[in-house]
Design a protein that fits this description.
Elements lengths: L33 E2 L11 H10 L12 H11 L6 E4 L1 H13 L5 E5 L4 H8 L4 E5 L8 H7 L4 E7 L11 H10 L5 E5 L13 H6 L3 E6 L12 E4 L2 H10 L7 H12 L1 H24 L3 E2 L6 E5 L3 H13 L2 E2 L1 E2 L8 E5 L3 H17 L4
Helix pairs in contact: 1-9, 2-9, 3-4, 5-6, 10-12
The chain binds pyridoxal-5'-phosphate.
The site of pyridoxal-5'-phosphate has 13 residues, from helix 3.
Length: about 375
């Protein structure tokens, strides 16, 4: 069947788009593995979701509301924003793709930072646009470098804040400085996939009120614990939202996803509790790993990026952790081959991971 190939050519610029490499999720021959490779909330969703999921599934013979009315209204209520300027998508991935599809064409440029989320590059390539990677400073986005990369072809700047996989973030003041320097026909997309993990941070929502060329994306996949349901949303100027809505498919988000996301966002206490649990476990684990001599930037999200002395050491430790039932995320595709990213689990998981790494360094050189 090797030769069973269609003689039908895709668009010329679809030929060289690399596949998105997601984190591994299983170890062959091992059960009860701990998956720390996808920045999920391993505590799962809030109780209301668990209580209503089975009952609500009786309705899945019905198409979802193509207008996402109830979820947009709930998002509007919780964030005190206009629901008519909210769009929902199959994860924030879909919103990122839609933004590129609607606002970029060939020869346009899309800026993203050195270790920025890979979907920015892939989504730009899928529209024929040119992704432009801008160097970071100590794994943190640099406003000056972003400004220096702008040309008359720049259409979109993507900035995850906090960023994945570095966990670093920049201040709202710096973002405002950036906005004051860039032309208003360049869209700045602030990706807030991890913004709920940062105390008193609105992920850039207030900047959308001030600058019509700012767009915010959010997700239910992280702190809300709904990664498997694929729900995300975006917030921006009405004309941007209208274009995105005209291009997205009408039933892009499942009815179950819409309903569970609506229940989740209403549970403000759950989000506050999860943020605090994550902070305590993350900072405790980071301090212990620093004591082992490892290098780790301060993280504002639900993961840590651990830097090892070499790519070889990172790979050896990755294999050692796999033998011990832990799956971490290799981040070579993010230009960080000497690093491993680990999601923050519960207290017991963090403790076991620390013990396992300590055991490794008891028997192996640090350098
Ligand atoms: C920075 C960032 N943005 C967006 C996403 C996409 O999330 P989703 O499509 O699940 O909403 C992720 C997922 O890992 C991410 O890390």
């Amino acid at each position: 069947m090797e030769n069973f190939k269609a003689n039908i050519n895709p668009l010329s610029y679809f030929y060289n788009i690399p596949l998105y490499e997601s984190g591994e999720s299983a170890i062959q021959g091992k059960e009860n593995v701990v998956k720390l490779s996808a920045n999920e909330n391993m505590n799962g969703p809030c109780n209301e979701v668990l209580n209503q999921f089975a009952d609500y599934s009786k309705n899945i013979f019905e198409y979802p509301d193509s207008n996402h009315f109830a979820l947009r209204n709930k998002i509007g209520e919780v964030h005190n924003i206009d629901p008519n300027r909210v769009i929902c998508g199959a994860g924030s991935d879909e919103i990122i793709q839609l933004l590129c599809r609607c606002f970029c064409e060939r020869n346009d440029e899309v800026i993203y930072t050195e270790h920025g989320f890979l979907m920015y590059k892939l989504s730009a390539l899928a529209t024929g646009a040119t992704p432009v990677q801008v160097k970071e400073t100590n794994r943190t986005a640099s406003i000056d470098r972003i400004c220096a990369a702008i040309t008359s072809n720049t259409k979109i700047i993507f900035l995850a804040n906090p960023n994945n996989p570095t966990g670093t973030m920049i201040s709202e003041i710096e973002i405002e400085q950036l906005l004051n320097k860039i032309p208003d026909n360049i869209l700045l997309v602030l990706d807030g996939a991890y913004s709920e993990y940062v105390d008193s941070f609105d992920g850039g929502i207030s900047l959308v009120e001030k600058f019509a060329n700012v767009f915010v994306t959010r997700t239910f996949s992280k702190i809300f614990g709904l990664g498997g349901l694929r729900v995300g949303w975006g917030y921006g100027a009405r004309d941007i939202i209208d274009v995105l809505n005209s291009v997205r498919s009408p039933f892009n988000v499942s009815s179950l996803g819409l309903k569970m996301a609506e229940l989740s966002i209403a549970d403000v206490n759950f989000v506050n509790e999860q943020r605090e649990l994550n902070r305590v476990n993350r900072d405790m684990l980071r301090n212990k790993l620093l004591d082992l001599g490892l290098k780790i930037d301060q993280s504002f999200a639900n993961f840590l990026l651990v830097r090892f002395v070499s790519e070889e050491q990172a790979n050896t430790i990755d294999s050692f952790l796999k033998e011990n039932g832990f799956i971490l995320r290799k981040v070579g595709s993010y230009g960080l081959p000497k690093c491993l990213r680990l999601s923050i689990g519960n207290k017991e998981t963090c403790e076991r991971l620390y013990q396992t790494l300590a055991k490794y360094f008891d028997n192996n050189d640090r350098v």
